[in-house]
Amino acid sequence: MKTLLEKEKKFADELNCFRESPKNKVELEKINPKHITENDIKTIISNLEANYNRLNEKLEHEQMVVEKTKNEMISTKRQILSLKEEMEFVVKKKSPEITDPTLLIKQELKRLGINDEHSERICKLIKSQES
Protein backbone atom coordinates (compact mmCIF):
# COMPACT_ATOMS: atom_id res chain seq x y z
CA MET A 1 0.00 0.00 0.00
CA LYS A 2 2.86 2.40 0.88
CA THR A 3 4.64 1.83 -2.41
CA LEU A 4 1.40 2.45 -4.27
CA LEU A 5 0.92 5.78 -2.45
CA GLU A 6 4.55 6.79 -3.11
CA LYS A 7 4.22 5.97 -6.81
CA GLU A 8 0.97 7.92 -6.97
CA LYS A 9 2.58 10.94 -5.27
CA LYS A 10 5.58 10.76 -7.61
CA PHE A 11 3.27 10.58 -10.62
CA ALA A 12 1.28 13.59 -9.34
CA ASP A 13 4.54 15.58 -8.93
CA GLU A 14 5.58 14.72 -12.46
CA LEU A 15 2.20 15.86 -13.78
CA ASN A 16 2.52 19.13 -11.86
CA CYS A 17 5.82 19.81 -13.60
CA PHE A 18 4.00 19.80 -16.94
CA ARG A 19 1.02 21.78 -15.67
CA GLU A 20 2.99 24.52 -13.91
CA SER A 21 3.57 27.66 -15.86
CA PRO A 22 7.05 29.20 -15.66
CA LYS A 23 7.42 31.26 -12.50
CA ASN A 24 8.61 34.80 -12.50
CA LYS A 25 11.67 36.01 -10.61
CA VAL A 26 9.77 37.04 -7.46
CA GLU A 27 8.03 33.67 -7.18
CA LEU A 28 11.33 31.86 -7.70
CA GLU A 29 12.98 33.81 -4.88
CA LYS A 30 10.22 32.73 -2.49
CA ILE A 31 10.66 28.99 -3.19
CA ASN A 32 12.10 26.92 -0.39
CA PRO A 33 15.36 25.35 -1.63
CA LYS A 34 14.16 21.97 -0.37
CA HIS A 35 11.17 22.06 -2.73
CA ILE A 36 12.83 23.42 -5.86
CA THR A 37 12.14 21.55 -9.07
CA GLU A 38 14.13 21.06 -12.24
CA ASN A 39 11.86 23.47 -14.11
CA ASP A 40 12.43 26.11 -11.42
CA ILE A 41 16.18 25.74 -11.84
CA LYS A 42 15.87 26.04 -15.62
CA THR A 43 13.76 29.16 -15.20
CA ILE A 44 16.30 30.67 -12.82
CA ILE A 45 19.09 29.94 -15.29
CA SER A 46 17.16 31.49 -18.19
CA ASN A 47 16.39 34.58 -16.06
CA LEU A 48 20.05 34.94 -15.12
CA GLU A 49 21.16 34.50 -18.74
CA ALA A 50 18.69 37.14 -19.90
CA ASN A 51 19.93 39.51 -17.20
CA TYR A 52 23.54 38.81 -18.19
CA ASN A 53 22.81 39.51 -21.86
CA ARG A 54 21.01 42.74 -20.99
CA LEU A 55 23.96 43.90 -18.85
CA ASN A 56 26.41 42.93 -21.58
CA GLU A 57 24.50 44.98 -24.17
CA LYS A 58 24.40 47.91 -21.76
CA LEU A 59 28.16 47.64 -21.21
CA GLU A 60 28.85 47.54 -24.96
CA HIS A 61 26.68 50.62 -25.46
CA GLU A 62 28.46 52.51 -22.68
CA GLN A 63 31.84 51.53 -24.13
CA MET A 64 30.77 52.91 -27.50
CA VAL A 65 29.70 56.17 -25.84
CA VAL A 66 33.08 56.42 -24.06
CA GLU A 67 34.96 55.73 -27.30
CA LYS A 68 32.93 58.37 -29.15
CA THR A 69 33.64 60.90 -26.39
CA LYS A 70 37.37 60.10 -26.53
CA ASN A 71 37.38 60.66 -30.30
CA GLU A 72 35.57 63.98 -29.87
CA MET A 73 38.13 65.04 -27.26
CA ILE A 74 41.03 64.14 -29.53
CA SER A 75 39.46 66.05 -32.41
CA THR A 76 38.84 69.09 -30.21
CA LYS A 77 42.41 69.00 -28.87
CA ARG A 78 43.75 68.93 -32.44
CA GLN A 79 41.60 71.92 -33.33
CA ILE A 80 42.86 73.80 -30.28
CA LEU A 81 46.50 73.10 -31.16
CA SER A 82 45.94 74.03 -34.77
CA LEU A 83 44.29 77.31 -33.83
CA LYS A 84 47.07 78.14 -31.36
CA GLU A 85 49.68 77.59 -34.09
CA GLU A 86 47.60 79.70 -36.47
CA MET A 87 47.36 82.47 -33.89
CA GLU A 88 51.14 82.43 -33.35
CA PHE A 89 51.66 82.69 -37.09
CA VAL A 90 49.20 85.56 -37.43
CA VAL A 91 50.95 87.44 -34.63
CA LYS A 92 54.36 86.81 -36.21
CA LYS A 93 53.04 87.80 -39.65
CA LYS A 94 51.93 91.19 -38.37
CA SER A 95 55.34 91.94 -36.97
CA PRO A 96 58.04 92.89 -39.48
CA GLU A 97 60.49 90.42 -37.87
CA ILE A 98 59.81 87.55 -40.31
CA THR A 99 62.77 87.51 -42.62
CA ASP A 100 62.82 83.79 -43.44
CA PRO A 101 60.53 83.20 -46.45
CA THR A 102 60.63 79.44 -45.92
CA LEU A 103 59.04 79.85 -42.49
CA LEU A 104 56.31 81.95 -44.09
CA ILE A 105 55.74 79.28 -46.78
CA LYS A 106 55.76 76.50 -44.18
CA GLN A 107 53.10 78.28 -42.11
CA GLU A 108 50.95 78.95 -45.16
CA LEU A 109 51.17 75.29 -46.21
CA LYS A 110 50.17 74.21 -42.70
CA ARG A 111 47.22 76.59 -42.85
CA LEU A 112 46.16 75.02 -46.14
CA GLY A 113 46.13 71.57 -44.48
CA ILE A 114 49.37 70.19 -45.86
CA ASN A 115 51.01 68.17 -43.09
CA ASP A 116 54.40 68.94 -41.59
CA GLU A 117 56.23 66.16 -43.41
CA HIS A 118 55.35 67.55 -46.85
CA SER A 119 55.87 71.17 -45.86
CA GLU A 120 59.34 70.29 -44.49
CA ARG A 121 60.23 68.66 -47.81
CA ILE A 122 59.00 71.68 -49.76
CA CYS A 123 60.97 74.05 -47.52
CA LYS A 124 64.13 71.97 -47.96
CA LEU A 125 63.70 72.10 -51.74
CA ILE A 126 63.28 75.88 -51.64
CA LYS A 127 66.36 76.29 -49.44
CA SER A 128 68.38 74.04 -51.74
CA GLN A 129 67.30 76.17 -54.72
CA GLU A 130 68.37 79.34 -52.91
CA SER A 131 71.87 77.99 -52.31
Give a verbal description of the structure.
By secondary structure, the chain is an all-alpha fold. It has five helices and no strands. Helix 4 packs antiparallel against helix 5. The longest helix is centred in the middle third of the chain and has 57 residues. The mean pLDDT is 79.
Q: Which band does the percent of strand residues land in?
A: under 5%
Number of strands: 0
Mean pLDDT: 79
List unreliable stretches of 5+ residues: none
Give the helix proportion (percent range). over 70%
Category by helix and strand content: mainly alpha
**Approximate shape:** rod-shaped
Tell me the distance between the termini.
118 Å
Secondary-structure element string? HHHHH
List the helices and strands and how they pair.
Layout lengths: L1 H18 L5 H6 L7 H57 L6 H11 L4 H15 L1
Brief synopsis:
The chain has helices spanning 2-19, 25-30, 38-94, 101-111, 116-130. The chain is mainly α and 131 residues long. The relative contact order is 0.04.
Entry keywords:
mainly alpha; 0% strand; 82% helix; 5 helices; rod-shaped; 131 residues
